[in-house]
Amino acid sequence: MTPRDASDDSRWSDLDRPPLNAVALRRGLVQEGGLWREVEVVRSTGSTNSDLVALAGAGKAGEGHVLVAEEQTSGRGRLDRRWTAPARSGLFFSVLLKPAEVPVARWGWLPLLTGVAVATGLSRSAGVDTALKWPNDLLVSIGGEERKAGGILAERAGDDGVVIGVGINVTLREDELPVPQAGSLALAGAVSTDRDPLLRAMLRSLEEWYGRWRDAGGDPSVSGLQETYAAGCATLGRTVRAELPGDRSITGEAVAVDGDGRLVIATADGVQEPVGAGDVVHLRPAQG
Protein backbone atom coordinates (compact mmCIF):
# COMPACT_ATOMS: atom_id res chain seq x y z
CA MET A 1 0.00 0.00 0.00
CA THR A 2 1.24 3.51 -0.82
CA PRO A 3 1.53 5.58 2.35
CA ARG A 4 -0.63 8.68 2.54
CA ASP A 5 0.98 11.78 4.01
CA ALA A 6 -0.52 12.95 7.29
CA SER A 7 -0.55 16.62 6.28
CA ASP A 8 -3.93 16.31 4.54
CA ASP A 9 -5.62 15.04 7.73
CA SER A 10 -8.00 17.52 9.35
CA ARG A 11 -6.63 18.32 12.78
CA TRP A 12 -10.17 18.45 14.13
CA SER A 13 -11.60 15.30 12.54
CA ASP A 14 -11.59 13.53 15.92
CA LEU A 15 -11.10 15.75 18.96
CA ASP A 16 -10.30 12.73 21.15
CA ARG A 17 -7.67 11.48 18.71
CA PRO A 18 -5.89 14.42 17.06
CA PRO A 19 -3.19 13.68 14.49
CA LEU A 20 0.48 13.84 15.34
CA ASN A 21 2.35 17.10 14.75
CA ALA A 22 5.13 16.02 12.41
CA VAL A 23 6.85 19.42 12.42
CA ALA A 24 7.00 19.54 16.22
CA LEU A 25 8.24 15.94 16.38
CA ARG A 26 11.08 16.68 13.97
CA ARG A 27 12.00 19.83 15.89
CA GLY A 28 12.10 17.94 19.17
CA LEU A 29 13.87 14.79 18.01
CA VAL A 30 16.21 15.62 15.12
CA GLN A 31 19.26 17.18 16.76
CA GLU A 32 22.82 17.75 15.58
CA GLY A 33 24.89 14.72 16.57
CA GLY A 34 21.82 12.76 17.66
CA LEU A 35 20.59 9.37 16.45
CA TRP A 36 17.36 10.49 14.82
CA ARG A 37 17.92 11.98 11.37
CA GLU A 38 14.41 11.94 9.88
CA VAL A 39 10.93 11.65 11.38
CA GLU A 40 8.30 10.92 8.74
CA VAL A 41 4.59 10.75 9.57
CA VAL A 42 2.14 9.21 7.10
CA ARG A 43 -1.61 9.06 7.37
CA SER A 44 -2.05 5.37 6.56
CA THR A 45 0.00 2.44 5.31
CA GLY A 46 0.05 -1.31 5.37
CA SER A 47 3.12 -1.81 7.55
CA THR A 48 5.71 0.72 8.66
CA ASN A 49 8.25 -2.12 8.95
CA SER A 50 7.73 -3.23 5.36
CA ASP A 51 7.89 0.35 4.10
CA LEU A 52 11.08 1.17 5.98
CA VAL A 53 12.80 -2.06 4.90
CA ALA A 54 11.94 -1.12 1.31
CA LEU A 55 13.21 2.46 1.75
CA ALA A 56 16.46 1.16 3.22
CA GLY A 57 16.85 -1.30 0.35
CA ALA A 58 16.37 1.51 -2.17
CA GLY A 59 18.95 3.68 -0.42
CA LYS A 60 16.29 6.20 0.61
CA ALA A 61 16.65 5.75 4.38
CA GLY A 62 19.71 5.69 6.62
CA GLU A 63 20.29 4.99 10.28
CA GLY A 64 18.02 7.05 12.47
CA HIS A 65 15.10 7.20 10.03
CA VAL A 66 11.77 7.03 11.89
CA LEU A 67 8.55 6.19 10.04
CA VAL A 68 5.27 6.72 11.89
CA ALA A 69 1.78 5.85 10.63
CA GLU A 70 -1.46 7.25 12.02
CA GLU A 71 -3.12 4.05 10.82
CA GLN A 72 -1.59 0.68 10.00
CA THR A 73 -3.82 -1.63 8.00
CA SER A 74 -1.54 -4.67 7.75
CA GLY A 75 0.63 -4.40 10.82
CA ARG A 76 2.46 -7.59 11.74
CA GLY A 77 3.50 -9.09 15.03
CA ARG A 78 5.54 -12.16 15.74
CA LEU A 79 4.54 -15.36 13.93
CA ASP A 80 2.89 -13.16 11.26
CA ARG A 81 0.01 -12.21 13.55
CA ARG A 82 -1.98 -9.21 12.40
CA TRP A 83 -2.01 -5.97 14.37
CA THR A 84 -4.86 -3.57 13.60
CA ALA A 85 -6.42 -0.62 15.45
CA PRO A 86 -8.56 2.45 14.67
CA ALA A 87 -6.77 5.42 13.12
CA ARG A 88 -4.86 7.60 15.62
CA SER A 89 -5.73 5.26 18.52
CA GLY A 90 -2.13 4.19 19.02
CA LEU A 91 1.49 4.71 18.10
CA PHE A 92 2.72 2.62 15.19
CA PHE A 93 6.30 3.34 14.17
CA SER A 94 9.49 1.78 12.86
CA VAL A 95 13.13 2.84 13.14
CA LEU A 96 16.19 1.91 11.10
CA LEU A 97 19.34 1.08 13.07
CA LYS A 98 22.79 0.17 11.75
CA PRO A 99 24.96 -0.96 14.69
CA ALA A 100 28.20 -1.39 12.75
CA GLU A 101 30.28 -1.43 15.96
CA VAL A 102 28.37 -4.42 17.32
CA PRO A 103 28.98 -8.05 16.25
CA VAL A 104 25.98 -9.41 14.34
CA ALA A 105 25.70 -12.23 16.87
CA ARG A 106 24.57 -9.65 19.44
CA TRP A 107 21.93 -7.98 17.25
CA GLY A 108 19.34 -10.33 18.72
CA TRP A 109 19.31 -8.05 21.76
CA LEU A 110 17.81 -5.17 19.75
CA PRO A 111 14.12 -6.09 20.22
CA LEU A 112 14.72 -6.66 23.95
CA LEU A 113 16.58 -3.34 24.15
CA THR A 114 13.63 -1.67 22.43
CA GLY A 115 11.27 -3.22 24.97
CA VAL A 116 13.29 -1.75 27.83
CA ALA A 117 13.40 1.64 26.12
CA VAL A 118 9.67 1.69 25.36
CA ALA A 119 8.74 0.63 28.90
CA THR A 120 11.05 3.26 30.38
CA GLY A 121 9.73 6.01 28.10
CA LEU A 122 6.10 5.19 28.80
CA SER A 123 6.68 5.03 32.54
CA ARG A 124 8.09 8.55 32.43
CA SER A 125 5.53 10.07 30.08
CA ALA A 126 2.29 8.14 30.70
CA GLY A 127 2.77 7.24 34.36
CA VAL A 128 1.80 3.63 33.64
CA ASP A 129 3.54 0.65 35.20
CA THR A 130 4.53 -1.67 32.38
CA ALA A 131 6.13 -5.09 32.26
CA LEU A 132 7.84 -7.04 29.50
CA LYS A 133 6.75 -10.49 28.41
CA TRP A 134 9.64 -12.31 26.77
CA PRO A 135 10.61 -11.64 24.09
CA ASN A 136 8.75 -8.57 22.88
CA ASP A 137 5.32 -7.87 24.38
CA LEU A 138 4.48 -4.89 26.57
CA LEU A 139 2.03 -5.66 29.38
CA VAL A 140 -0.11 -3.31 31.46
CA SER A 141 -2.38 -4.03 34.41
CA ILE A 142 -6.12 -3.41 34.01
CA GLY A 143 -8.33 -4.32 36.94
CA GLY A 144 -5.58 -6.49 38.36
CA GLU A 145 -5.28 -8.43 35.10
CA GLU A 146 -2.25 -8.43 32.82
CA ARG A 147 -3.04 -7.43 29.27
CA LYS A 148 -0.95 -6.82 26.17
CA ALA A 149 -0.82 -3.16 25.16
CA GLY A 150 2.06 -3.31 22.72
CA GLY A 151 4.50 -5.38 20.73
CA ILE A 152 7.85 -5.17 18.97
CA LEU A 153 9.02 -6.75 15.72
CA ALA A 154 12.59 -6.68 14.39
CA GLU A 155 13.53 -7.42 10.76
CA ARG A 156 16.83 -7.35 8.92
CA ALA A 157 17.28 -4.60 6.36
CA GLY A 158 20.06 -5.68 4.06
CA ASP A 159 23.41 -6.79 5.46
CA ASP A 160 24.02 -3.83 7.73
CA GLY A 161 20.66 -2.78 9.15
CA VAL A 162 17.76 -3.74 11.36
CA VAL A 163 14.28 -2.25 11.24
CA ILE A 164 12.44 -2.37 14.54
CA GLY A 165 8.70 -1.81 14.61
CA VAL A 166 6.71 -0.81 17.68
CA GLY A 167 2.95 -0.82 18.11
CA ILE A 168 1.33 0.63 21.24
CA ASN A 169 -2.39 0.83 21.97
CA VAL A 170 -2.92 4.29 23.47
CA THR A 171 -6.61 5.23 23.56
CA LEU A 172 -8.34 1.98 22.57
CA ARG A 173 -11.60 1.47 24.46
CA GLU A 174 -12.90 -1.90 25.66
CA ASP A 175 -15.31 -2.16 22.73
CA GLU A 176 -12.44 -1.57 20.27
CA LEU A 177 -10.06 -4.23 21.57
CA PRO A 178 -9.23 -6.89 18.96
CA VAL A 179 -9.20 -9.64 21.61
CA PRO A 180 -10.18 -9.68 25.31
CA GLN A 181 -6.54 -10.13 26.34
CA ALA A 182 -5.57 -6.81 24.76
CA GLY A 183 -5.30 -3.53 26.61
CA SER A 184 -4.32 0.11 26.17
CA LEU A 185 -2.60 2.87 28.08
CA ALA A 186 -5.93 4.63 28.60
CA LEU A 187 -7.55 1.53 30.08
CA ALA A 188 -4.52 1.14 32.37
CA GLY A 189 -5.09 4.62 33.80
CA ALA A 190 -2.42 6.62 31.95
CA VAL A 191 -2.03 10.17 33.23
CA SER A 192 -1.53 11.30 29.63
CA THR A 193 -2.60 9.88 26.28
CA ASP A 194 -1.18 12.74 24.21
CA ARG A 195 0.71 10.77 21.58
CA ASP A 196 3.27 13.47 20.70
CA PRO A 197 5.06 13.47 24.09
CA LEU A 198 4.61 9.70 24.41
CA LEU A 199 6.39 9.14 21.10
CA ARG A 200 9.15 11.61 21.94
CA ALA A 201 9.73 9.93 25.30
CA MET A 202 9.99 6.46 23.74
CA LEU A 203 12.37 7.57 20.99
CA ARG A 204 14.60 9.50 23.40
CA SER A 205 14.75 6.47 25.67
CA LEU A 206 15.58 4.25 22.69
CA GLU A 207 18.36 6.62 21.63
CA GLU A 208 19.80 6.51 25.15
CA TRP A 209 19.71 2.71 25.49
CA TYR A 210 20.94 2.11 21.94
CA GLY A 211 23.91 4.42 22.51
CA ARG A 212 24.79 2.70 25.77
CA TRP A 213 24.56 -0.77 24.19
CA ARG A 214 26.51 0.24 21.08
CA ASP A 215 29.26 1.91 23.14
CA ALA A 216 29.63 -1.40 25.03
CA GLY A 217 30.09 -3.30 21.75
CA GLY A 218 26.67 -4.86 22.23
CA ASP A 219 27.67 -6.50 25.51
CA PRO A 220 24.36 -6.88 27.39
CA SER A 221 26.07 -7.09 30.78
CA VAL A 222 28.46 -4.16 30.46
CA SER A 223 25.69 -1.92 29.06
CA GLY A 224 23.33 -2.86 31.89
CA LEU A 225 20.76 -4.10 29.40
CA GLN A 226 20.61 -7.72 30.58
CA GLU A 227 20.06 -6.75 34.23
CA THR A 228 17.47 -4.07 33.39
CA TYR A 229 15.53 -6.35 31.07
CA ALA A 230 15.42 -9.10 33.69
CA ALA A 231 14.23 -6.65 36.35
CA GLY A 232 11.26 -5.62 34.20
CA CYS A 233 10.47 -9.02 32.70
CA ALA A 234 7.12 -10.42 33.89
CA THR A 235 7.99 -13.85 32.46
CA LEU A 236 10.77 -14.63 34.93
CA GLY A 237 9.75 -16.60 38.00
CA ARG A 238 6.65 -17.97 36.35
CA THR A 239 5.61 -21.36 35.11
CA VAL A 240 5.46 -21.05 31.34
CA ARG A 241 4.91 -23.12 28.24
CA ALA A 242 7.10 -22.36 25.24
CA GLU A 243 5.65 -23.39 21.89
CA LEU A 244 8.68 -24.06 19.72
CA PRO A 245 9.19 -24.51 15.99
CA GLY A 246 8.54 -28.05 14.83
CA ASP A 247 5.43 -28.55 16.99
CA ARG A 248 7.53 -29.00 20.12
CA SER A 249 6.82 -27.40 23.49
CA ILE A 250 8.58 -27.02 26.84
CA THR A 251 6.92 -26.43 30.20
CA GLY A 252 8.79 -25.25 33.27
CA GLU A 253 9.86 -22.25 35.29
CA ALA A 254 11.38 -19.27 33.46
CA VAL A 255 14.53 -18.71 35.52
CA ALA A 256 16.75 -16.34 33.52
CA VAL A 257 17.48 -14.44 30.33
CA ASP A 258 20.95 -15.50 29.23
CA GLY A 259 23.74 -13.53 27.57
CA ASP A 260 22.28 -14.19 24.14
CA GLY A 261 18.85 -12.89 25.12
CA ARG A 262 17.35 -16.37 25.28
CA LEU A 263 14.79 -17.37 27.90
CA VAL A 264 16.10 -20.15 30.15
CA ILE A 265 13.39 -22.61 31.24
CA ALA A 266 13.99 -25.08 34.07
CA THR A 267 11.94 -28.21 33.42
CA ALA A 268 10.60 -30.70 35.96
CA ASP A 269 13.39 -33.18 35.14
CA GLY A 270 16.08 -30.70 36.15
CA VAL A 271 17.15 -29.57 32.69
CA GLN A 272 17.68 -25.86 31.99
CA GLU A 273 16.86 -25.26 28.36
CA PRO A 274 17.47 -21.93 26.60
CA VAL A 275 14.75 -20.85 24.18
CA GLY A 276 15.72 -18.42 21.44
CA ALA A 277 12.49 -18.36 19.46
CA GLY A 278 8.95 -19.41 20.18
CA ASP A 279 5.63 -18.40 21.64
CA VAL A 280 5.58 -18.23 25.45
CA VAL A 281 2.39 -18.66 27.50
CA HIS A 282 2.30 -17.57 31.15
CA LEU A 283 0.63 -20.42 33.03
CA ARG A 284 0.53 -18.89 36.50
CA PRO A 285 1.56 -15.64 38.24
CA ALA A 286 5.10 -15.16 39.44
CA GLN A 287 5.74 -16.03 43.05
CA GLY A 288 6.55 -12.98 45.09
Automatic annotation (TrEMBL):
Q: What is its EC number?
A: 6.3.4.15
Alphabetized UniProt keyword annotations: ATP-binding, Biotin, Ligase, Nucleotide-binding
Under the heading Pfam families, the entry gives: BPL_C, BPL_LplA_LipB
Keyword Ligase present in the record's keywords: the answer is yes
Q: What are this entry's molecular-function GO terms?
A: ligase activity
Q: Where is the BPL/LPL catalytic domain?
A: 40-214
Does the record carry Membrane as a key word?
A: no
The record's section on InterPro entries has: aa-tRNA-synth_II/BPL/LPL, Biotin_CoA_COase_ligase, BPL_C, BPL_LPL_catalytic, Transcriptional_repressor_C
Q: Which PANTHER family match?
A: BIOTIN PROTEIN LIGASE, BIOTIN--PROTEIN LIGASE
Query: Which protein is depicted?
Result: biotin--[biotin carboxyl-carrier protein] ligase
Which species?
A: Streptomyces longisporus
